[in-house]
Every structure is written in C-alpha cells, then in structure tokens.
Amino acid sequence: MSDVVDSDELLRRIQRARDWAAQEEQHWKTRSGRSGDTEADGAREADLLAAVYEAVRKVFDEVVTPGSNSAD
Known about the structure:
By secondary structure, this protein is mostly helical. It has helices at residues 7-32, 40-64. Helix 1 packs antiparallel against helix 2 (40-64). The N and C termini lie far apart (36 Å). The model has no long low-confidence stretch (mean pLDDT 87).
C-alpha cells in the first residue's frame, strides 16, 4: 500500500468514486420510490442509503469543484 500517486491520478480516482456514489444514490432513490414495495422497513432503508450516498457524492463534488454545493 505504498504506491505513489500523482495528483492527476488522485483526481481520477476521486472522480470515479464520485461517479460510483452518484450511481448508488440513484439506485437507492429509485428503489425507495417503487410503488410496489410493500415493506416499510425496506423503503426506509433505501431512503437512508440514498441520503448516505448523496452525502458522499457531495463531499467528492466539493473536493473536485470547491463551492459546487454552496447553493444546497
């Protein structure tokens, strides 16, 4: 784990992580919004996970583009 990473590679890794968090956020938002989901606990869990991934994505957004979430 002592790999040396330049700033460009670090930025690429952060962007990939941000994109992944955005995909997961969308997945859980979609899952929580399904009308056929009768399990209330499952819907609450999906809402919670969507909020968690949204927070992670916003942190990565702020790292990549400072001030990008200041309007929220």
